[in-house]
Amino acid sequence: MLPVVAxxxxxxxxxxxxxxxxTRSRDALVADMPGVTRDRHYxxxxxxxxxxxxxxxxxxxxxxxxxxxxxxxxxxxxxxxxSVLVFVVDARDGLLPQDRTILDxxxxxxxxxxxxxxxxxxxxxQNAMAEFAVFGIANTLPLSAAHNRGTEDxxxxxxxxxxxxxxxxxxxTDPDSIRxxxxxxxxxxxxxxxxxxxxxxxxxxSNVAGTTRDPIKVSLxxxxxxxTLIDTAGVRRKARVEEAVExxxxxxxxxxxxxxxxxVVMVDARENLADQDLTLIGHAxxxxxxxxxxxxxxxxxxxxxxxxxxxxxxxxxxxVDWAKTVFISALHGSGLRELMKAVVRAHHAAxxxxxxxxxxxxxxxxxxxxxxxxxxxxxxxxxxxxxGGTNPPTVVIHGSRTKHIAPAYRRYLENFFRKRYRLExxxxxxxxxxxxxxxxxxxxVLTDSQKRKRQRMIREMKKRGR
Length: 466
Prior knowledge:
Rossmann fold; six-stranded mixed beta sheet; 15 strands
């Protein structure tokens, strides 16, 4: 395993900006306000002689209640698993009593500490660094994470403190793992579901809506299969999104859906299916991602409430009737086995390889069973088909007059292919391509004899017309 370096400090000192600079990514959400980061965010720094894992943590505000207390628990877990701690302070704010309190806690851990004095751009460097000399930390480095200054020195210092034997290379994302994005409205139980699957409190869970802001990737191995679970921020209706941080969280959620292979849309059974849930499902379909509907908080509902919920789901989810609906309780763990089975089936269907000969035979049977409507007195011809890609499965059909094929016939073909190949849980894309006309753009030039014959025929037609 790669060694771990944790970034720790007060809120709004630039830890997430430094994380993005070290990992050369934009994975961590950055805003000019405290308390944006809450969960542990992992990335790999590869800019030095050997790679190591960087952990972005939430700011330690000194509060032990509510969201701040839960954030502090996540920070302490990161401190415990780290080999080196980077204590990030703000040069513009100067040395604050809260910094001394955090440093005392870091020293009690017994881990090597690097002091990163951030936001030194535009300041007198000697005066800025002199104030933090009282820390007594040998590795006290000036930084400007926003401009990527001083990060190379930070990486070099961290490498000298990391254990020599912990440098085994790993892939940032296992190619064999199934990438699963958990999406839904705020407070639908996404983080609770991931914690239940992992068997630990990996993510912050609170009754306060909007606890998660950054997309958090977590590895999971269950029943011999590997998964990469992506916990995303809750998505509300656009009219209710006011804070800039929440707007960026929504963008990150949509990006996570595009990067995933399977999207699990969590629905609160007690609040029924909302329009925002349908919007998220529509985004998943537009991205071509395999889809599973997880109806959470199913426990505690009586038989009448369950029947009403099932009827509403069946009525409003007709446009994705190919998606599996699983009823679960993320808090108590019921239905999770069925949920993961549905994820595996959806992933298998989305990545299934289809052969050209079999697709052409299936197309012929579909064409014989129901031919497309006539276009200006002529029926479109569908000649052969071949695969056009996976995730989602794409079928390319060649023929003539395919531009005029009705959407209803396209849906007929999608359902026919789905039933033939048992493609449950994934959308299917049908692409039509017209064959080229070999005579297009060519003009028939008449010879002299043909022109004389044409003139005689015109004169004869005029005589008969009289």
